[in-house]
Specification:
Chain lengths: ~500, ~325
């Protein structure tokens, strides 16, 4: 009998030891996060930029309507259910009851409608629409039912509703009215934390939301985002304990962090891709043989190694391998073949010389110089100009004085939102693409909205049609990394470069 | 002296006018403006909505001619209103008020450390001129002169923050919250700046001291049997420190540019990093406010240097 008791006590103790450290979610403490860029504001109608530091810093105070589980199933968050009309032009969302904003205002259909009306009347709506789709109007159908009416069938809306898409994050309506433009500095959401203090360019401090519906999930007392520019200073800060977490796209930093046994590094192979786009409307890049030759001439593994320390994967379409929309590498993307490149250039028969513009950020400038070197080996002369990032760069790209430019295609939740700019009639058609085959492939993809398999086939057909014409060179799907000290518990991999730091807790 | 100070302060008006006008016009020459950023331009594959950009520009008053905008800003500045950040809505005066003490403390500590290193090094170099000690000090000064501040800053951070954990790698703690923590957070950044500053000061002091040591009054002091240390510190150092003081004043301008980098590396929320971020974001009102404050500070420092001359040399006072 004694023996049995001993075994039972030892087993129970062992079980506690095994489970204890992993599951005990300790309360309290301040999580400090290093941001690479300063926050520009919380109101996306005034600051629509999707830059990842900003999105991550907004996450603790806002919530999505739904999220997507590991099994791909939709998980209710603020929403309870969603339903699409057969023509997929009307989407109805039922909201959960009893939810409050951090100032105590109720979260209901009229609050959500007010949020959208404010966005739709803002000057940034043209930009935000690109992220939420062709919404015509949003109306309240009862106290907790919201109806989104679309301009056209829009199957991508399910993905928008169930992913962290920041224009969908609502602010408290009465507070928004009261503070007007100051909403940019005084956000009020439904998330587990709320803004305590924001010192622009320095730090953002969040404290617990007293109206949050599930206080057991508010493990941390405070979350502080600090601006620490530069990869090395931020990595040194995590290593020395000055901060707990940093987020990065930089391969060298992530690889260095992986060498340190005191740190944890979680990587996400991000969808979207870095690219080089061509102006296809004038010589020499109006000839598909030249564009194909430029694609064949470059060893993309060498590009990835040089520009991002091999952190990522060469891309063959604009969806990453972890996305359900990835075309499995079957888009016919040209392989590295200098002989083929030379043959195509010989067939073109004229000297190839053009101007390319890039930004002075490592991934872009190294990539541009490497392409320039590979192309030079083929006898192609490229004049490279460096322009600062931000508006100045995009003004230079759109100015028409360059034949090629480096740009990223952002990760998106659905192909219906991504890389539509190769359609000849698209306002954002910066490559001046005018290929009937590409237009037809995209129109086919728009039509095939009822069946997901058909949609995927149609979108892959569109990617293949684009690759065939090569108005764009794909470079790589880059990784995104969350680097944290080991005392940060419950850390999960990011989704669309967003990490739910508000769900973590600190080891005692 | 009063007339002298008044004359110097009057100089401030054309200086402030010139630097703010130049910065205003130069920033306007850069492609893109804050309206682009507010409309979302500058992000991956952004579609340029020109109508929205124009509307935002009108809202912000950026559609007015640059001369009108400049004089409008100048008029407001005279009344003490420096405007607001277009993007964050923060008052320019608040942003500057928050960050100026940080940069001021950084520069003050850096100058203090630089002078602290430079004086003994200069004295040793002059006293042992041409000897091994002098050559060693000279080699050391040239080594630090050749090293850029960001390299020194990175090495210091790695050694003393990551490896030894003596000082924080980044961050700022206000003096009012924790005086010791504040000094710890400023030690490495100030040291990084001081290490590039002290060689110049030390070289200047050494050369001036060597000249002073040839003077008749020094020979007289020696003949009186005074000790070498006493002669160096009491008789030679004061007349040899004029160039040093001038350089300390002038170098403050250079230190501000060094501070931009060091503030970034150590994540100190100073005025240098604010200036760079504001130029990138085309926050012209913020840039103007900072430039104005810097111009005033620069004139004030040079004025202080001139007053200090008078204190050191009675002939100038007369």
């Amino acid at each position: 009998m004694k023996q049995i008791w001993k075994i039972a006590i030892l087993s129970a103790g062992g079980a506690l030891l095994a489970v204890g450290p992993a599951t005990a979610q300790s309360k309290g403490g301040t999580l400090t996060v290093g941001m690479d860029r300063p926050m520009t504001g919380f109101d996306s109608s005034m600051n629509p930029r999707p830059e990842y530091n900003r999105r991550n810093a907004m996450l603790p105070i806002y919530e999505d309507l739904f999220s997507t589980g590991r099994d791909g199933k939709i998980v209710p968050v603020l929403g309870e259910s969603m339903k699409a009309s057969p023509d997929q032009k009307t989407w109805t969302v039922t909201l959960k009851k009893g939810i409050k904003f951090s100032n105590g205002e109720p979260f209901n259909a009229s609050a959500y409608v007010a949020h959208f009306k404010r966005y739709q009347s803002s000057k940034a709506w043209g930009f935000l629409r690109g992220m939420v789709g062709p919404i015509k109007t949003v109306i309240a159908k009862g106290s907790h039912t919201v109806e989104f009416q679309m301009l056209r069938p829009f199957p991508a809306f399910a993905a928008i509703l169930s992913n962290p898409v920041y224009p969908m994050w609502a602010n408290a309506p009465q507070h928004s009215l009261n503070v007007g433009k100051e909403l940019n500095r005084q956000p009020v959401g439904t998330g587990p934390y709320m803004l305590e203090k924001w010192i622009p360019g320095v730090s953002i401090t969040y404290v617990k939301n007293p109206h949050y519906r599930d206080p057991s999930k508010q493990h941390l007392d405070k979350i502080v985002f600090k601006v620490i520019k530069g990869e090395l200073p931020r990595l040194n800060s995590v290593k020395s304990g000055a901060i707990d977490v940093m987020l990065t796209r930089d391969g060298k930093t992530a690889n260095q962090a992986k060498q340190d046994s005191n740190l944890q590094v979680l990587t996400e192979l991000v969808g979207g891709t870095t690219t080089i786009e061509f102006n296809t409307s004038r010589p020499p890049l109006n000839d598909v043989r030249v564009r194909k030759a430029l694609a064949h001439a470059v060893n993309r593994m060498a590009d990835l190694k040089a520009s991002n320390d091999g952190f990522g994967r060469p891309s063959t379409d604009w969806f990453g391998p972890s996305s359900k929309w990835h075309c499995g590498g079957k888009t016919g993307y040209p392989e590295f073949n200098p002989r083929k490149a030379k043959g195509l250039l010989m067939a073109y028969g004229k000297p190839v010389k053009f101007k390319m513009v890039t930004m002075p950020i490592k991934n872009f400038i190294v990539g541009a110089k490497l392409h320039q070197t590979f192309w030079k080996r083929m006898g192609v002369e490229v004049e490279l100009k460096v322009v600062p990032p931000g508006p100045a760069y995009f003004r230079a790209v759109r100015s028409g004085q360059f034949d090629a430019w480096l740009v990223g295609i952002s990760e998106a939740v659905d192909p219906g939102l991504q890389a539509q700019a190769f359609f000849s009639k698209n306002r954002g058609n910066s490559t001046k693409s005018n290929f009937p085959e590409v237009d037809a492939a995209l129109q086919k993809a728009w039509r095939s909205f009822k069946d997901e398999a058909a949609r995927k086939a149609a979108y892959c057909g569109y990617v293949s049609a684009v690759v065939k014409q090569q108005p764009i060179l794909f470079r790589a799907h880059n990784n995104f990394a969350v680097i944290a000290s080991k005392k940060v518990m419950g850390l999960k991999k990011s989704n669309l470069t967003m990490t739910r730091l508000q769900d973590t807790w600190l080891a005692k | 002296m009063y007339i002298y100070i008044r004359r110097k302060l009057l100089h401030l008006i054309p200086i402030a006018f010139a630097v703010t006008a130049l910065s205003f016009f130069f920033i306007d020459l850069l492609p893109g403006d804050v309206a682009d950023a507010i409309a979302g331009i500058g992000t991956d594959n952004a579609v340029v909505d020109e109508a929205a950009v124009q509307a935002i520009r009108k809202d912000l008053g950026l559609d007015r001619p640059i001369v009108v905008r400049y004089f409008s800003w100048l008029g407001n500045a005279f009344q003490g209103e420096l405007g607001k950040s277009y993007q964050t809505g923060q008052l320019v005066s608040d942003a500057i008020g928050l960050r100026l003490p940080v940069t001021f403390q950084l520069l003050a500590m850096a100058q203090f450390l630089a002078v602290l290193f430079a004086i003994p090094a200069g004295i040793i170099g002059a006293y042992r001129a041409g000897k091994v000690t002098d050559k060693f000090v000279t080699t050391l000064t040239f080594a630090f002169l050749a090293a850029p501040s960001f390299i020194i800053a990175i090495i210091l951070a790695f050694l003393f923050a990551v490896m030894l954990n003596w000082f924080p790698a980044t961050g700022y703690i206000p003096f009012s919250e924790d005086p010791i923590g504040n000094l710890r957070s400023f030690t490495l950044p100030a040291l990084a700046l001081a290490l590039i500053e002290w060689p110049i000061l030390s070289r200047v002091l050494r050369n001036d001291l060597i000249e002073t040591l040839q003077e008749d009054f020094i020979s007289l002091a020696k003949a009186k049997g005074l000790s070498n240390i006493y002669i160096l510190l009491r008789h030679a150092l004061r007349p040899s420190s004029f160039t040093l003081i001038t350089i300390v004043g002038i170098q403050l301008g250079n230190l501000i540019s060094g501070a931009v980098i060091v503030e970034s590396i150590f994540a100190l929320p100073g005025i240098g990093s604010l200036l760079v971020a504001s130029i990138h974001a085309r926050e012209i009102l913020m840039v103007q406010g900072i430039i104005l404050v810097m111009a005033v500070a620069y004139v004030a420092i040079n004025l202080a240097v001139d007053i200090l001359y008078g204190a050191l040399d009675p002939r100038i006072r007369q």
